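Training component of the fellowship. As part of building independent skills, the fellow (R.M.) carried out the full modelling exercise for a liganded target. The chosen ligand was 3-isopropylmalic acid. The inputs are recorded below so that the supervisory panel can assess the work.
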Amino acid sequence: MRKEVVLLPGDGVGQEIMKGARTVLETVASEYDHEFVFHEHAIGGDAIDRYGVPLPDDTVKACEAADAVLLGAVGGPKWDDMPADKRPEKGLLGIRKRLGLFANLRPVQGFGPLVHASPLKTELVDGCDILIVRELTGGLYFGEPSGRSEDGQSVVDTLSYTREEIERIVEKGFEAAQMRSGHLTSVDKANVLESSRMWREVVNEKAADYPDVTVEHQLVDSAAMKLITNPKHFDVIVTENLFGDILSDEASVLTGSLGMLPSASVRTDGVGLYEPVHGSAPDIAGQGIVNPLGMILSTAMMLKYSFGMEKEAEEIERAVSQTLADGYHTRDLDVEGGKVVDTEGIIGKVIDHLSTESISNSICSS
Ligand code: NAD
Ligand code: IPM
Ligand code: MN
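Fellow's submitted model of the complex:
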């Protein structure tokens, strides 16, 4: 298969992790006789520096024409004092909105060799497998009005949703639960927010269409607590934009590092965007030590969801898993007796496990 992939490395560690994604995809292409054509474009602070805006039109056009988009990360202290419209993060929010990517799927799946890397008790995290379905193009991130009054003495951000926006993400949550173990937790703040009360209403209405899914509602504050005291309680979590943002970083603690989490931003059909959950990690950028596995696992999600390449995606996941089983990891993971390698080192180990020989061994042994 020939696929056109837009690469948006962005800022900070974005360039370093994108190199890993690209190398992995090139290896998959040669092993499976595919052709991935890469088109690199600017976004975020990098685009501000080069073109004066965080999301150049060329970048949007390229993404719209692509089969899929991979994004590294945006943002950093250099641009933190820019006006709201000229911040790197506006580029990311803009591309999500322009592509209509209303559903952000964030799997939180622990790898066996990393159970001790979590600061949480092993019996809590061992075998935990959660999917956070985060609404991505509405809520506080996009509501109007938003800004500062002329005298600079008051500010406003607006949390708004239409019923239709809630319906389509809730449906995604139910569909995901149906394909997994059939349990959906809807997270809201219905004791305070009108938007959450409508959210709850929609979930209850939709539940009738999915009789095989058990549904529960959980307030976001106690959900945050339960996520790290009893994570195995959860299967699929569906929630609004900001709650999903916060809960997914929290949930990454279950896996040992924020650097492990991949994500897929999708709409009902059409182009998808794949990116790790973490940010540009300015504190470690340029040192060659960033964990690229969240980015690499995002390429696996791209192969599966955008290209229907299930087998190839599984091979990437297997290669990551075997690399960790061999004891290799980057320094963000605290594994007793493990072997700390740098970014290039871990990418190299994953590639070794993707090579022809290891793939044929895995086929023979399966
Ligand atoms: P962050 O996710 O960049 O980093 C939080 C902490 O986790 C840091 O200590 C960092 O070193 C560490 N970390 C994150 N990813 C890692 C990885 N792959 N390997 C090893 N360590 C890793 O969050 P932050 O520091 O709050 O934000 C920094 C910048 O990133 C901000 O400008 C923010 O807006 C931006 N951001 C961008 C995205 C995105 O582009 N999708 C996501 C989150 C934050
Ligand atoms: C994420 C990030 C973004 C978000 C920021 C950088 C706009 O935190 O992708 O999780 O809040 O969506
Ligand atoms: Mn976030």
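The panel noted the following from the submitted structure. The CA atoms of residues 300 and 316 lie 6 Å apart. The chain has a mean pLDDT of 96.
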